[in-house]
Specification:
Two copies of one chain form a homodimer. Chain A is an alpha+beta fold and 245 residues long. The first copy, chain A, has two domains: 149 residues, Jelly Rolls (Sandwich), CATH 2.60.120; 82 residues, Winged helix-like DNA-binding domain superfamily/Winged helix DNA-binding domain (Arc Repressor Mutant, subunit A). Chain A has a four-stranded antiparallel beta sheet with strand order 1-8-3-6. In chain A, strand 10 and strand 11 form a beta hairpin. At the A-B interface, strand 4, strand 5 and helix 4 of A face strand 4, strand 5 and helix 4 of B. Chain B binds a DNA duplex (30 and 30 nucleotides) through helix 7. Chains A, B: InterPro entries: cNMP-bd_dom, cNMP-bd_dom_sf, Env_Response_Regulators, HTH_CRP, RmlC-like_jellyroll, Tscrpt_reg_HTH_Crp-type_CS, WH-like_DNA-bd_sf, WH_DNA-bd_sf. Chains A, B: It comes from Paracoccus tegillarcae. Chains A, B: GO terms for molecular function: DNA binding; DNA-binding transcription factor activity. Chains A, B: This is Transcriptional regulator.
DNA sequence: CGCCGACTTGAGTCCCCTCAACAAGAGTGG
DNA sequence: CCACTCTTGTTGAGGGGACTCAAGTCGGCG
């Protein structure tokens, strides 16, 4: 995100790309003005650590552009990704001074930051912010719980298939949802995929080639994946297809 | 929970056992009056299904007494428990007509139910309810994400150790937290434990006997567990002990 | 006593992990 | 341009941890 764009956002929230999905989605113009007074922008490079678990954190923030990942890890190096943060997603927790997870920028990231104290005060006065934050939290809770099923019970092949169809669902326009040959770009490295799915990079790699051998997908370079048989892929996710529609 | 107690709760929320922890925790007496108008009580027997994923759900509810479990499953029978609901925990989601998960009573359960439409209206008018629901949702989100680390990365032995120390933390008074020979009662069957930890009942059983052979715990009957070496057990959880304190 | 459900224990198998070598780019510097 | 390195990803061989299938134990209850 260029410095020019950020400069104009500082003055006016109305052209913000996440205006209608972020924590401020329900705010009217008066409320936006109050938010504007306490906001500031921050850029992070790909790979940079945004917060560390246990560290003091006096900000909360929305992701304006880029992708970040939430993770937890054990001292021996095992790491589990706990969530993927896309534009409009929220970082930090009102009412808590310590960061509960590690947050790392996957791509270059632009943040819209609020001082935590001021934001908490604002939430009291502006129910629209609290409402939206509740909605967003409940959505994340659902997503986390869906992921628990994957981590606890699915096979490696099912996990890969689930990830691919998840990315397709998010990234692709509804027009060709049923169409063949939808192409997606994996937003993250193999290592990040492995950490997301609770697998190793080798297993991820092997399962991707297995799906390719079986004719469900084809692979273009390291990151590109073409879904050649969408229905078969969904069948491989292991999900009860009566509800995923 | 006896019918007598429920009868008195219908009239007066102030003696409700979850008055200070449930979604109504922050309400003043006026607000409680409004809640009282739309509430009703419901009892479920142990083992009974409270909601089914995908089913229409026109209520939301707080657990007044008993234990219930949240789970998701795949058509071939694999099941993953997604959360344990204890008194004061909340069931259902404002703004959504379909139950997102299966909820099953583990013990006999008493629910304090609200019609969903009326509850949603109330939330608009009473920020205290919304505030509390947000806090509770964020706590559950943290718990779900902690569990993702366990499901994605921990060994069977670590999972069992984690569960035991979790139960001990919740159930036990802080007085003898460091003390030896704390006794806990497993609140659920081996099958439920397995579903919670993403394991099979056989593996759960084997790991429990392994911990017994190694002198960390001893087992009394099917449900009783005595922690003989608390520090060693915590060391086995795999958690980074610098933060769990 | 005999049955039933919950739990334990054993034997064998398989899936995924570990360790290791190899391939394909992308920079870097001469 | 090439040699070199570093990173990222693929592939193979082997081992181990958890699962599957099956039998056995224990306690409760009619």
């Amino acid at each position: 995100m260029t410095a020019d764009i950020i400069r104009s956002l500082k003055i006016d929230c109305s052209c913000c790309p996440i205006r209608h999905r972020a924590v401020c989605a329900k705010c009217d113009t008066d409320e936006l003005d109050r938010l504007r007074e306490i906001k500031s922008y921050r850029s992070c490079q790909a790979g940079q650590v945004i917060t560390l678990r246990g560290e003091r954190l006096d900000m909360v923030a929305s992701i304006v552009s880029g992708t970040a990942m939430l993770s937890r890890s054990i001292s021996d190096g095992r790491t589990q990704m706990i969530g993927l943060l896309l534009p409009s997603d929220f970082i930090g927790r009102p009412g808590r001074a310590e960061a509960p997870y590690d947050v790392t920028a996957v791509t270059d990231v632009t943040l819209c930051c609020f001082r935590r104290g001021a934001f908490e005060q604002l939430m009291q006065d502006m129910p629209h912010v609290q409402e939206r934050l509740l909605e967003m939290s409940l959505d994340e809770l659902d997503a986390a719980r869906d992921w628990m099923l994957l981590l606890g019970r699915k096979t490696a092949r099912e996990r890969i298939a689930s990830l691919l169809s998840l990315i397709l669902q998010r990234a692709n326009l509804p027009e060709d949802l049923g169409g063949k040959n939808a192409r997606i770009e994996l937003p993250i490295t193999r290592e990040a995929i492995a950490n997301y799915l609770g697998l190793t990079i080798e297993t991820v790699s092997r399962q991707l080639t297995a799906l390719r051998r079986d004719g469900l997908i084809s692979i273009e370079g390291a990151r590109g994946v073409v879904i050649s048989d969408m229905d078969a892929l969904i069948a491989e996710t292991g999900d009860d297809d009566t509800l995923t529609a």
